[in-house]
Design a protein that fits this description.
With about 375 residues, the chain is mainly beta. It is built from four helices and 22 strands. The strands form six sheets. A seven-stranded mixed beta sheet has the order 3-2-5-7-8-1-4, with no helix packed on it. Strands 10, 14, 15, 18 and 19 form a five-stranded antiparallel beta sheet that branches.
């Protein structure tokens, strides 16, 4: 018996009749050496689907698809431009512009990071000139409207031990500050915060930061602020004072804020240290946080780089310094506070600087002749 298999061709639907279509979203790779490929990066909880006629760019229909229900309807033989916005709050309440040319001005305001955790990372995508004459599906690649920021914090170098030593230096908290809340999914210029009211009051943070943990992941909304310090070549000068001097609005710039605690009982001085780092494409002048990109930050703490210039550092209110410094004269006796040293020409003198770091021992730091 001879059996042959013939591929079934979908039944053609006459022009102008209804065609049932399933939107199949796909998450594109991030523009980086690393990929946003975790499960949390690819969840699709809902979709706002906007249909525009390709012929004149006029708005045709809006669909809100929840869960696994991703079906829409087109007219057979009619060409459409399809725009998709996924994982947004109150998608049904968003009003699309009358013409496709107005889509760059369509904004989605993130109400809180809680909505991102609940719905997933906001994504968008589009497909032009879609024309079907039979029931089927359409694949649309979506781009995440947030960046992934990997933060590595290490204080192993402070003690030389193979792992972070929380007895000397411990993690306290790690925040994303001034995250942009206004996303422009279909703008060719990307999304950007325009003023202080455009940023989230409560940004993402790591509430489970362990005292000695070192690797953390954050998702940060796109915020394309551009190059604001074009002549700067020093990472240590990518700071708020330099930005203010350049006339930049610092209230719209996204930065990471890390707080660590140096144990004064062990080090002789200590308290909370707050490190701030402005995000951007480089460490000197760029302040763009671009959608669907991966940014890797690293803060390596050591005795020589406890105050690393690549991060802007300030002391917490609990900062204490128990160290005492004394100058000893050539005869070995301690000089009084505010003492004036007189050195005669052609008569070398020896002055030593001693430091008492823990109240029990005295160590000589250096001497000069």
């Amino acid at each position: 018996m001879l059996i042959s298999c013939v591929r079934e061709t979908p039944e053609s639907i006459p022009y102008g009749r209804t065609v049932n279509v399933e939107i199949v979203p796909g998450i594109g790779d991030a523009a980086s050496k690393s990929r946003l490929d975790g499960a949390e990066d690819c969840n699709i909880s809902n979709m706002l689907v906007l249909l525009y006629r390709s012929s004149d760019g006029r708005f045709d229909k809006k669909y809100v698809c929840d869960g696994d229900d991703r079906g829409i309807q087109l007219l057979s033989g009619v060409s459409y431009d399809i725009f998709v916005l996924a994982n947004v709050e109150n998608a049904s309440g968003m009003n699309p512009p009358e013409y496709e040319t107005g889509l760059p001005g369509l904004n989605y305001v993130i109400p809180s990071y809680e909505s991102v955790n609940r719905l997933g990372i906001p994504c968008c995508g589009s497909l032009n000139s879609v024309s079907l004459t039979a029931n089927g599906s359409v694949n649309i690649i979506l781009s995440r409207l947030m960046a992934k920021v990997n933060v590595h914090i290490s204080h192993k170098g402070l003690t030389g031990k193979p792992s972070n030593d929380a007895s000397l230096f411990s993690n306290v908290k790690l925040y994303v500050r001034q995250a942009n809340a206004v996303l422009s999914p279909f703008s060719p210029d990307g999304s950007r915060a325009c003023d202080g009211d455009s940023v989230l009051e409560v940004s993402d943070y790591d509430p489970a930061m362990t005292a000695d943990g070192s690797d953390f992941v954050f998702y940060v909304p796109e915020n394309m602020q551009g190059c604001l310090l074009p002549g700067n070549l020093n990472p240590g000068d990518k700071t708020e004072p330099a930005l203010r001097q350049a006339g930049a609005d610092v209230s719209v710039l996204t930065y990471m804020e890390y707080t660590g605690h140096l144990n004064a009982n062990v080090a002789g001085y200590g308290g909370d240290l707050v490190y701030r780092f402005y995000l951007g494409a480089d460490t000197v002048g760029d302040f763009n946080v671009e959608r669907n990109h991966v940014y890797d930050l690293s803060l390596e703490l050591s005795p020589e780089h406890l105050f690393d210039s690549y991060w802007k550092i300030s002391h917490g209110s609990d900062w204490n310094d128990f160290r005492t410094f004394r100058l000893l004269g050539q005869d070995g006796s301690a000089l009084e506070d505010n003492a004036i040293l007189a050195v005669r020409p052609s008569h070398p003198a020896l002055i030593r600087l001693f430091a008492n770091s823990d109240g029990s021992s005295v160590n000589m730091i250096s001497s000069a002749v």
